[in-house]
């Protein structure tokens, strides 16, 4: 039960305390579903790094004055408190008394800050700090072990109720019907686990190449260095020598380039990116660029197909976001953590199940009264009353729904239609018309953007 109700686990095993002292945090979504998530707070120790760190509270650890890292480090302990929520890491900000996202440059940086704070690259020491705090620049999809998938399926409340019902029926000699339901249930669980495992493997293979790109960066005081893209951190200077698949989100500061953004927008027409202007105002760079800030940004997963240096030096960009904070990371997270369903069909189905359960409760008490009136032994009275209670909710229902969905997926797959959310298949029967759109072209021209 604690697996499905994490708030109960927290309420029964933890005591309230100030947020900055907590070792377990209970989070609740702000949408209409108000779901709870339990997360453990963990610590990162900067003292474990190779390069020595200053314990002086007045001396910043990173050059960026806007960075949350400077406000999150506890001195002289040199440690940070962190939580990881849906692949995104947050650190405790002692100034704002809240958890703040890391793995990206702050939006409060101005054009001047980006050019002059990061224009020469980061030092090796600052890179080391940011790698520890922000984590690797990798979009890693875990292939879930089969035993974990099985546990998740078996812990479903429907299957728990089904196990209780079938145990009761078998004890009363309903052998053939119970065995038939058990066989159907086992088949449905195996098919469901196999399908989930296959989807996990495919998604893992799809994003794995993103983590194996070789890039060239500029290190302050040392010059150019080639390294794996998973070692990139926000603030690094990325050199764009020519064609390259971008492993992070970055803002262009020198030169221009032509980018294929088809992976993100579906547009087949390449987009020209221009460098961020060098202005001395203190306005945040996105506000300064207004709606056109995207023309300076190179998004993760897109492909640079042509570069044009503006002077003697190469085309350069400052790394903005890494890992799951990037545009491609958001896309993968939307697959890993889809929005819950709130279709009318499911709401009405749940109400119907509650109605059946209420009938079962009425039958339970009625049977209890009748058998007690006729002075039937207590053991037999309880058994027969429970059979009346369990007979109202069909125990074969979850297995039938699962097999139906799996069969529907197989049929769709033959038509080269792939589904990442099988629960939505039932809704497809109500669709009469599907419109496909090239983002930013036809709809913008028609005024529907």
Listing every helix as H and every strand as E from the N terminus to the C terminus, the arrangement reads HEEEHEEEHHHHHEEEEEEHEHEEEHHHHH
> Into which percentage range does the β-strand content fall?
15-25%
The structural domain count equals 2
For the sheet with most strands, the description reads:
6 strands, antiparallel
Strand order of the largest sheet: 8-7-9-16-11-14
Q: What's the total number of strands?
A: 16
The CATH first-level class of the largest domain comes to: Mainly Beta
Rounded Rg: 28 Å
Mean pLDDT over all positions: 83
What is the assigned CATH homologous superfamily of the largest domain? Calcium-transporting ATPase, cytoplasmic transduction domain A
Portion in helices: 25-40%
Q: Helix count?
A: 14
The CATH architecture classification of the largest domain is: Distorted Sandwich
- Global structural class: alpha+beta
Low-confidence stretches: 440-449
Q: Classify the fold: give the CATH topology of the largest domain.
A: Calcium-transporting ATPase, cytoplasmic transduction domain A
Taken from the alpha-carbon principal axes, the silhouette is elongated
Give the distance, in angstroms, between the N- and C-terminal Cα atoms: 45 Å
């Amino acid at each position: 039960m604690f697996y499905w109700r994490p708030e109960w686990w927290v309420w029964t095993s933890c005591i309230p305390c100030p947020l900055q002292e907590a070792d377990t945090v209970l989070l609740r979504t702000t949408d209409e579903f108000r779901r709870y998530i339990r997360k453990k707070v963990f610590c990162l120790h900067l003292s474990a790094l190779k390069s020595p760190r200053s314990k002086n509270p007045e001396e910043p650890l990173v050059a960026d004055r806007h960075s949350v890292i400077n406000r999150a480090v506890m001195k002289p302990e040199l440690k940070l408190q962190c939580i990881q929520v849906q692949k995104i890491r947050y650190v405790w900000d002692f100034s704002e008394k809240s958890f703040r996202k890391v793995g990206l440059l702050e939006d409060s940086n101005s054009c001047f800050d980006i050019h002059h704070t990061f224009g020469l690259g980061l030092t090796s020491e600052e890179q080391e700090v940011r790698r520890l705090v922000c984590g690797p620049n990798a979009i890693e999809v875990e292939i879930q072990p089969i035993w974990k998938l099985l546990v998740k399926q078996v812990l479903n409340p429907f299957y728990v109720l089904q196990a209780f019902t079938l145990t009761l029926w078998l004890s009363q000699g309903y052998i053939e019907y119970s065995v038939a339901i058990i066989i159907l249930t086992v088949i449905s669980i195996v098919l469901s686990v196999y399908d989930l495992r296959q989807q996990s493997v495919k998604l893992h293979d799809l994003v794995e190449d993103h983590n194996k790109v070789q890039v060239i960066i500029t290190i302050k005081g040392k010059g150019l260095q080639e390294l794996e893209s998973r070692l990139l951190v926000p603030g690094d200077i990325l050199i764009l020598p020519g064609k390259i698949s971008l492993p992070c989100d970055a803002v262009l500061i020198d030169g221009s380039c032509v980018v294929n953004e088809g992976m993100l927008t579906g547009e087949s027409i390449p987009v020209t990116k221009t460098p961020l202007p060098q202005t001395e105002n203190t306005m945040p760079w996105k506000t300064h660029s207004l709606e056109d800030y995207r023309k300076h940004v190179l998004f993760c997963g897109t492909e640079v197909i042509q570069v044009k240096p503006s002077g003697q030096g190469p085309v350069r960009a400052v790394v903005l976001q890494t890992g799951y904070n990037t545009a491609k990371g958001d896309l993968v997270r939307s697959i890993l953590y889809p929005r819950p369903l709130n279709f009318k069909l499911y709401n009405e189905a749940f109400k119907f199940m509650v109605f059946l359960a209420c009938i079962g409760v009425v039958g339970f008490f009625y049977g209890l009264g009748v058998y007690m009136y006729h002075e039937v032994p207590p053991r037999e009275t309880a058994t027969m009353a429970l059979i009346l209670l369990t007979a109202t909710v069909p125990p074969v229902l979850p297995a039938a729904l699962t097999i139906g969905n799996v069969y529907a997926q197989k049929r769709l797959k033959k038509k080269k239609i792939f589904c990442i959310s099988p629960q939505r298949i039932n809704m497809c029967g109500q669709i009469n018309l599907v419109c496909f759109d090239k983002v930013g072209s036809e709809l913008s021209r028609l005024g529907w953007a």
